[in-house]
Description:
Elements: H1 27-60, E1 95-99, E2 105-107, H2 109-114, E3 118-125, E4 131-141, H3 142-149, E5 157-162, E6 168-172, H4 173-176, E7 181-187, E8 190-191, E9 201-204, E10 216-222
Parallel strand pairs: 1-10
Antiparallel strand pairs: 1-2, 3-4, 4-7, 5-6, 5-10, 7-8, 7-9
Amino acid sequence: MKPEHPSQDRDAPGAGDPDTRGAPVGRRVLLGTLGLGALGLAGAPYLQRGLESFLAGAADRDPTGLTGLLPNGGGFRYYSVTASVPRKDARSYRLTVDGLVDRPASYTLADLKALPQTRLVRDVQCVTGWRVPGTPFEGVRLSRLLDAAGVRPTARAVRFTCFDGAYTESLTLEQARRADVLVALRMQDEDLGHGHGGPARLYVAPMYFYKSAKWLSGITVTEDVEPGYWEVRGYDVDAWVGRSNGRDDAPTS
């Protein structure tokens, strides 16, 4: 947050007193200052991406989790429940769909990108309190992958696993079929980077962000909801923003 500037009203102390005003600013100095300001604005996106990349890399090697407390201009915090997370790319990434389905499948990143894409712009709300407004996500609707797999009549839930080897999440089948639940491949109009859970992550727009599992590797259709990593540690399984976890945040979807 920018600090508030002191009053610039004409009646403010010293505003019209030549003995208390600063020395006049020369034309060259003024133009130079404006030029530096414009340069800073032009370079801001690159500096922001560099900062996010640095923090993501540092958090990936920080078993204490303290790096995730550092702020950055994008408003996000970097969380991982493991000391490190392997990196996947277009050649090594696979997403499996299995469990109570008639047609188990394995998708490459290219396979996922070839499917129809949906773009959503919603606020992101973390259960710890921070919020990032108007964040674009793009990807494949989870319902499309479930329909392609042929969900069996006995199924009532979906379990998600991640290639960090530790994190899990679950949704009811009804929740998973919502139009605002994606296997996201892009975020903020860029391919999903490793620090944000790439190459693919779950995105559950109406729920707190811990439901949007990063580094998604498996979708398993099950009979019952299985509490995820944070839910066995006390977080709500049904994590609707503003209606769970004892919070009253404004909805995000």
